[in-house]
Amino acid sequence: VQLQASGGGLVQAGGSLRLSCAASGRTFSTTTWFRQTPGKEREFVAAIDWSGSRIYYADSMKGRLTISRDNAKSTVYLQMNSLKPEDTAVYYCAADYRSMRLESVKDVGQYAYWGQGTLVTVSS
What we know:
Elements: E1 3-6, E2 9-12, E3 17-23, E4 30-36, E5 43-49, E6 55-57, E7 65-70, E8 75-80, E9 89-96, H1 102-105, E10 113-114, E11 118-123
Parallel strand pairs: 2-11
Antiparallel strand pairs: 1-3, 3-8, 4-5, 4-9, 5-6, 7-8, 9-10, 9-11
């Protein structure tokens, strides 16, 4: 089982990007995006369950994010709008077969599968 994150790039402040997390052959109960900058811990961004009915967003980015999924393509998307320079980070997707509540989805230790990360750079 592999997760492939893509969609990162260089964008100006105020711009948008859509990240994708494609799972090879499996559908996970929980798929989550984290981000990390040098010297800092990995930070929760957004999570979605298998049905798309349970969605969580980080308070710091709420209102600028939309997470969605296409189970037919085994892919989860993260639409990020009104990007800010402080959003610059490597974004990772993670997934697990278990359904999780909010307290667990924010915990990096809960995930068995991780993508390789995709770099998002927001210029001022």
